[in-house]
Amino acid sequence: xTNLLWTLVALQIAMGAFDTLFHHELTERLAWRPSQKHELxxxxxxxxxxxxxxxxxxWSEPRGLAALATGAVLGxxxxxxxxxxxxxxxxxxxxxxxxxxxxxxxxxxxxxxxLLTPLLIRWSGDSSGxxxxxxxxxxxxxxxxxxxxxxxxxxxxxxxxxSDRLVQPDPAAMGRALTGRRRVLVTGATGFIGRRLIAAxxxxxxxxxxxxxxxxxxxxxxxxxxxxxxxxxxxDTRIDAIVNLAGEPISDGLWTLAKRRRILRxxxxxxxxxxxxxxxxxxxxxxxxxxxxxxxxxxxxDGTLDxxxxxxxCFSHRxxxxxxQAAAPVEALGVRLVTLRIGLVLGTAGGMLSRLLxxxxxxxxxxxxxxxxWMSWITLDDCVRLILHAIAEPRVTGPLNATAPxxxxxxxxxxxxxxxxxxxxxxxxxxxxxHLAFGExxxxxxxxxxxxxxxxxxxxxFRFHHSELEDALAAIVGARPRxxxxxxxxxxxxxxxxxxxxxxxxxxxxxx
Length: 512
Hints:
Elements: H1 3-27, H2 37-59, E1 60-63, H3 65-91, H4 96-123, E2 129-132, H5 137-162, H6 172-175, E3 183-187, H7 192-203, E4 207-211, E5 225-227, E6 241-244, H8 257-280, E7 287-293, E8 304-305, H9 315-327, E9 336-342, E10 344-346, H10 351-361, E11 374-375, E12 377-379, H11 380-392, E13 398-402, E14 408-409, H12 410-421, H13 431-438, H14 440-446, E15 451-452, H15 455-459, H16 469-477, H17 485-505
Parallel strand pairs: 3-4, 3-6, 4-5, 6-7, 7-9, 8-15, 9-13, 10-12
Antiparallel strand pairs: 1-2, 11-14
């Protein structure tokens, strides 16, 4: 094989690695999307084919029938890729960068086939077998690539197998907890929480008005009314409740000065627009549930914090305080205000957990820093249910902690996630590198925390579906239920009793 051919193979490996890591893992998170079950199977099979091809071509030259078989395998890979293209277009919206990458991969693969096919034809005339060969650094590269695609191939096949266990419950059941037929305005409709909230509302027959800046990319469940500017809503529009979740993502980049300004401005601008809308409506909504976060409390050690807890100054506190203050004037307009102080929302479609799943699944996860910082968490569906509870329950006013009753330390969360995925979770991320790489973002969101409890939610009758982390993570990642010691003994006792009964009835013979 020539250096040009190996160069093209190296380019294919590099582009394939980028496509897998950036698109499939970080951006699209295909392994945790039940809708991509068939795509994952195609990826798994194709990766295993690549692993075999890389090893074979790196260490040998196929001759005779082996050369013909290699050509057939290359053709099979091409067919799988074409089927994969169709499956991707059928089941998901590909980002532009992924489409460009796929085009480059296809062109480069065509160039590889153009150079490799004549070699295979020439080798097919020799005696059948594999002639040992070594290509120096190219062989080492092919071996490393084979190991990588083999691991990802097995993981993709395993992910396809668990897809059926990842299907979320019907969201309509959550929406039906809100009695009557309500019209709800939702900002931040395309976000992690907003999408699930809208699915719950529309599934239960409620009317939804969604503020969406770019409707072409929204992809939200119908039927909804889309607005791109709250000023376009007529004053005589009846709106029963408003849920304000809009804002620049806080954990998708370094907290540069420009990023902080965008984070703050995006929240304040939309909240002020909501306030102006309420002021001019003929029929004002009963309640505004406005977003905030447990960052309002700042960084604390072990002290337990409810809605009356004190605050400590930091960027997260200043942000949440300003956000809550921007919503406060609606109370003077006769609207009940709930400021939802949201904790770490657990789900596979977004939030911090979705970023942890890939490293933990490959056994590379562990605690961050000392692991003693508190993580106050809530499942996505419990968060949506709590929003609906805040709309329906007139006793809920002011700050409302959206966290489960059992906060855990980062070390305990890491161990629980490792157990849910049946992986070790011992590779810790030291505090100093995290601080040097991410600055205050790491100090406040990764290495610091708060021990927050939902006192007001519980006092007003809300009941969490997942109050224990182990059960929540098992449900989220589709973990197979494990039998406890008592259950195992019960099954053994039942089996023994059944065997004894069969022996008594003469159904089983112990004779050879």
